């Protein structure tokens, strides 16, 4: 009985395994600058919030 229930799960997992893998593209210089600014702004805001709370 357990084997009969598991066969439906194996069918679902096979479809996910057949998906096409995406190739990671490197970021351009402008994208790195934008990401760096976002991270620096987030760290600045967290520092201010931490100073207020503590």
What is this entry, summarized?
Keywords: Membrane, Transmembrane, Transmembrane helix. This protein has helices at 2-17, 29-53. The protein is an all-alpha fold and 54 residues long.
Cα(first) to Cα(last) distance is 59 Å
Based on CA inertia axes, which overall geometry fits?
elongated
The average pLDDT value, as a whole number, equals 82
Number of helices: 2
Low-confidence stretches at least 5 residues in length (pLDDT < 50)?
none
Q: How big a fraction of the residues is strand?
A: under 5%
Main beta-sheet annotation: none
Structural class designation: mainly alpha
The SSE string, one letter per element, is HH
Oligomerization state: single chain
**Strand element count:** 0
Taking all Cα atoms into account, the compactness measure Rg is 23 Å
- Helix content range: over 70%
Transmembrane segments: 32-53
Organism: Pedobacter alluvionis
Keywords: Membrane, Transmembrane, Transmembrane helix
Protein name: Preprotein translocase subunit SecE
